[in-house]
Amino acid sequence: MEASDRAFLAELKTCVLAAVEKDEPVGGMRDDEPWFGDESRLELDSLDALQISMAIQKKYGVRMPDSKETRRALVSLLALAEHLRVRMSA
Question: Can you give 29-77 as a three-state secondary structure string?
């Protein structure tokens, strides 16, 4: 992974954690770690998803409507980063 990719993931992680007002889990958060569901250490809910969507729109100018595509993008840090790369390059 290139340095620019690592920097983008770090920036995105900071943005997401600030949006949901949570600290990074003990031991760090893997890029592919799930944000929602039984396996999530962050234990995010639908309100958190809305807060992340609003923070992404404000910071990156990418609108994230309530859709299946957005739900897929909010699965993990890697999924969101890929979604944003596609949207920002279009």
Answer: CCCCCCCCCCCCCCCCCHHHHHHHHHHHHHHHCCCCCCCHHHHHHCCCH
SS3 72: helix
Model confidence, pTM: 0.91
Alpha-carbon distances, residue 2 vs 6, 9, 11 (angstroms)? 6, 11, 14
SS3 assignment, position 25: coil
3-89: CATH topology: 1.10.1200
Per-residue pLDDT tens over the stretch 6-25: 999 999 999 999 999 999 99
